[in-house]
Amino acid sequence: MPETTATTRLRRKTRTGVVKSDKMQKTVTVTLTRRFAHPVYGKMMTRTVTVKARDEHGAKVGDTVRLMETRPLAKTVNWRVTEIVKRAK
Predict the structure, then answer these.
(1) Which SS3 state, helix, strand or coil, does residue 30 take?
(2) Is the separation of the CB atoms in 54 and 67 below 8 Å?
(3) Which one of 23, 50, 55, 84 is most buried, by most CB atoms within 10 A?
(4) CA distance 84 to 30
(5) How far is residue 77's CA from residue 70's CA, in Å, rounded to a whole number?
(6) Residues 62-72: b if buried by 16+ CB within 10 A, e if exposed
(7) What does the pLDDT look like over 45-72, one tens digit per residue?
(8) Helix (H, G, I), strand (E, B) or coil at 8
(9) Spacing of C-alpha 66 from chain mean position
């Protein structure tokens, strides 16, 4: 039984990150930061990953944005900006 588009969209990953670069025409570079406890010692650790996302909303450097996983839009672009959560000051 084929699934509808609405149910498959609900399972897409969403992440919140900060825009680090907006020098490309339709793409922004976003840094995603996650904090978690070390599995053995319990100390809080921070890991960051940088992704490229398609931006139709006009995000600028320092903005906090919400990303959604999508099909490959370019060689390195697999995310798109769904909304700007907070503008940079």
Answers:
(1) strand
(2) no
(3) 55
(4) 12
(5) 9
(6) ebbbebeebee
(7) 999 999 999 999 999 999 999 999 999 9
(8) helix
(9) 6
